[in-house]
Amino acid sequence: MSVDLTYRDRTAILTLSRPDALNALNFGMIESISEALDAVARSGSRALVITGAGERAFCAGADITELTGRTLSAQKAGAELGQSVFSKLDTLPMPSIAAISGFALGGGCELALSCSFRLATPRARFGLPEVKLGLIPGYGGTQRLPRLVGESRALEIILTGRMVSAEEALAIGLVNRLVEGDLLEAAVAFAVELGGFSLVASGLAREAVRRSMDCPLHEGLQTEADLSTLAYQTADADEGMAAFLEKRPPVFKDC
Question: Which helix (H) or strand (E) is 177 found in, with range?
Fold first, then answer.
């Protein structure tokens, strides 16, 4: 199997499992990721961790052997497939965490960019090196990287095709946290922390932030007001406020 899906502590763990190929993405693997994300959405998990098998790479990018000699329509369909699968992470009912050790290049970097959060070891390396092949990113890199690190930094990374160290990635906001110890343990612990809150509330917050990227401030504020008002109508909001007043931990039911 090129993708393994397991569950632990109400956390789904999706492992890219082609370590002999540095977990490079072929089209069959992208389809498997899509099926796994559908299963996660139905699973009742409270968070998703995506990682790569082995220590050398999270994912070293697309499998280049599949990308040559294809028609224009096939190339466009391939880009749209990758974009649609990675975009599923936005619509999952739970947040997602990329746990990155080693290389996260090309499509692998784009997969990490699609997650809600990114945790990395100090030896992680990031990049969108498509320009070195006479190409540009096709799975969302030109859209998501500027939203994280700003237009100028994103252009410099994309147009040079250089690798970004874990330390630089943390400094520019590409990575949320660096992990010195066991990466998967840290990612699951973070997932458990996130999963302790109402999935309804976290989903509404993710939606508000996501919409803010595509609209002027006044429209974003209106979206926030609408979604905040909606949050007040949930049973979890009633429980959260009651628990606060009663000085006890809340018991959220995600409704």
Answer: strand 177-178
User: What is the enclosing helix (H) or strand (E) of 114?
Assistant: helix 107-114
Q: What is the mean pLDDT of residues 101-120?
A: 97
Which CATH fold would you assign to the domain 199-245? Lyase 2-enoyl-coa Hydratase; Chain  A, domain 2 (1.10.12)
Predicted confidence (pLDDT) per residue in 191-229, tens digit: 999 988 999 999 999 999 988 888 899 999 999 999 999
- Choose among 50, 127, 44: nearest CA to 85: 50
Q: C-alpha distances in angstroms, 235 versus 80, 176, 205, 213, 230?
A: 38, 31, 16, 29, 11
Active site residues per annotation: 110, 130
Backbone angle region of 98, left / alpha / beta, with phi > 0 → left and psi within -120 to 50 → alpha? beta
